[in-house]
Amino acid sequence: MTRVESMSISLWVIMAITLQISEAFTFTCSSHKSIQSFRNTALGAHASRRDVLTGLLASSSSAAAVLLSSNAALAAPRPEYLTEPTDDFKESEKQRMEFKAAQLKIKKEFTDVLERFTNVSKNEDEIVKDLKDLRRLVVETGGMPLGIKKEDMVKIIRRKKALGFWPTNCEIAYQDLFREILFQQSPNKEKDPLSSM
Predict the structure, then answer these.
(1) What is the DSSP letter of 45?
(2) Res. 172: pLDDT tops 80
(3) Verdict on whether the full-model pTM lies above 0.85
(4) Contact residues for 17 (Cβ-Cβ < 8 A; gap 6+)
(5) Cα 46 to chain center, whole Å?
(6) Fewest CB within 10 angstroms: 68, 80, 110, 138, which?
(7) Maximum distance among all alpha carbons in the chain?
(8) CA-CA distance, 53 to 44, in Å (whole number)?
(9) Is the four-CA dihedral 148, 117, 161, 181 of positive or negative sign?
(10) Between the CA atoms of 165, 171, 173 and 177, what dihedral angle is there, to the nearest 10 degrees?
(11) In whole angstroms, what is the distance from residue 132 CA to residue 126 CA?
């Protein structure tokens, strides 16, 4: 086999692979006619090198055009969705701000009573009154306000209890407060209220 024959066989293989690849794509560009003419003449027995090269050039330029057009579509800037907030969003934001302001007001009431409980209350009547005030606030608000955890409040009350002066009425008021917090956090109204479990 001569060098010229091996080159023409290599060109035929490249051309066949290119034709199979080009059939996988649908081309709508102007080089479609050159691909058809290349297919008709290159597969024939009397194909010249010029016909083969013309066909390869046409198919590769068509493939490049398809790839470049898909890359240009991907590189296009994305549209912006909103420049101004919608009316629904503004209304929702207003409701959130109102809720937060109400929660801050409730939290201030709780912290005032807790502050009075820890620093001012010294006798049994004052301690019981503060614990009942805390229970009333828990009932009014339907639980604990945002920013105050049940565990934190229990720690404050137990710290006061550990100081030594904690009569029976204080313990009863504390247990009532604790049960009310548990009920408000998980109200199970179908359970027997007198049952401990």
Answers:
(1) T
(2) yes
(3) no
(4) none
(5) 65
(6) 80
(7) 117
(8) 15
(9) negative
(10) 110
(11) 10
